[in-house]
Amino acid sequence: MAETIQEAVKRRRTFAIIAHPDAGKTTLTEKLLLFGGAIQLAGEVKAKKDKIQTRSDWMKIERERGISVVTSVMTFEYGDNVFNLLDTPGHEDFADDTYRTLSAVDAAVMVIDAARGIEPRTLKLFEVCRLRDIPIITFVNKMDREARDTFEILDEIEEKLALDTAPVTWPIGQGKTFAGTYHLAENAVRRGDAETERTPVHGPDSNRAAGLLPENDRPAFIEEVELAREACRPFDADAFREGHLTPVYFGSALRNFGVRDLIEALGAYGPPPRAQEADSRTVEATEDRMTSFVFKIQANMDPNHRDRIAFVRVCSGILQRGMKAKLVRTGKPMSLSAPQFFFARSRITADEAYAGDVVGIPNHGTLRIGDTLTEGEDILFRGVPNFAPEILRRVRLGDAMKAKKLKDALHQMAEEGVVQLFTPEDGSPAIVGVVGALQLDVLKERLNIEYGLPVDFEVSRFSICRWIDADEQAELTRFMEAHRGDIARDLDDDPVFLAQHEFSLNYEAERWKAIRFTTVKDYQ
Ligand code: GDP
């Protein structure tokens, strides 16, 4: 019998992993896919990374700097659940890409290195999740190495993140003695991910719990479990879903501990696809009619085809292969002839996708980040953010004959979210803006390789960019007219104010109280 929309939605879990570089995100991803049956052998994710690097020239940057620039999505099944794991770039120069990806998930797994605790990137990414009320499951990784005291780790999470913690499992030993995980509420033990089931025991002093440890370590373990049960908060599903409490799991992605505990937790408590705010109403995931939005565009996934894939998160209904969707920004119909699902090493044509699913839609520049697709309804999803760039540059091109080509290329790069593009009102050359310097390297490399445009960057006289608006349109117009040389338009034609330095921005903000200067813009 065919699955109903309600059933399909209930099974889905769409999430991202947030972590400071080196905490073990890649290793954990690999193991999730392995246990989810999406790959046969661990090592695939790394292998895939390497392959992409050698295949694609502009990815040289990634190879040289040893970082992952690409965001991708991976689908796998475990038990009754369908998981969509959205990968985020580890390097902070691509932070805006990460933030956009987080707009498309319903939950996040926060990976912490057991010896290092909460690190700066973890904190930053956590704050983004909190702004969006994204529920977080914590995975304390690398328990097979010398780790901090378990209570200390929990305290640090509570203090640094102002987030309640509820340890669901407790590590049996740590470092060399790490032997498994103890489920506090169930009184059950898993000696590693090779065991598909947890074994019930009568208590922490059982042979199958404390008995796994060297004799000297047993009393401390038994005491810790008892203390944890008395002193720590119990898991509360509502507080978790509201983003106030994080369940904590312990393990070692490398040595195959705790990963199954984590997937099962996502399946059991992870929220199914949430209702999504659009401009005029809230869209429920189980509605019949398809709605979706684009949160990511990726070019050159397959250089043989020079393709451009728009990653679309389905918000309601069924996205069916061959259907005609309406691109709300332009009002034009668009045929979804070849939507794709992505797995660890392959992609397949997606016949049907439900809320929470992420499909790739090949296109030649029709779709942009933030676009909404529907079955006809005129609604726009908000919430795929745009961040004010921290670095502004003019692009210098040796060959003036290619100015038009450069303009088109920059436009495309901006639509893909590689850079932001600002067109000054006074007719001077366009300005590109990025959040991290590495984005400029990617732009330069891609303009050269894909468009044959060798460019350099020139410092612009501006260093700050803010979107501007006001309650009274007349006031905004007055401000813009008074500052014509400092006003530009972004890709959506929204005005920005360009300032030379913080001082001049503050000065203007002081003088023009009716104008709002903002650093984040939700795509319309
Ligand atoms: P990412 O930068 O967060 O993607 O981290 P990786 O998954 O690439 O891991 C960083 C390093 O930590 C690699 O050398 C991994 O082999 C190692 N690593 C990851 N998980 C564990 C673990 O559970 N235990 C130990 N001992 N090492 C780990």
Quaternary state reads: single chain
How do the strands line up in the largest sheet? 28-25-27-26-30-31-29-32
Strand content: 25-35%
Helical percent range?
25-40%
Give the distance, in angstroms, between the N- and C-terminal Cα atoms: 40 Å
Rg estimate, integer Å = 25 Å
**Distinct ligands, ions and cofactors found in the model:** guanosine-5'-diphosphate
Number of helices: 14
Overall pLDDT confidence: 88
Low-pLDDT stretches: 40-71
Q: Which structural class do you get from the secondary structure elements? A: alpha+beta
| C-alpha geometry | globular
The major sheet is characterized as:
8 strands, antiparallel
> How many β strands by DSSP?
33
Please, could you describe this protein's structure?
The chain has 524 residues and is of the alpha+beta class. The protein contains 14 helices and 33 strands. Helices cover 28% and strands 29% of the residues. Bound molecules: guanosine-5'-diphosphate. Guanosine-5'-diphosphate binds at residues 19, 21-27, 90, 141-142, 144-145, 252-255. Keywords: Cytoplasm, GTP-binding, Nucleotide-binding, Protein biosynthesis.
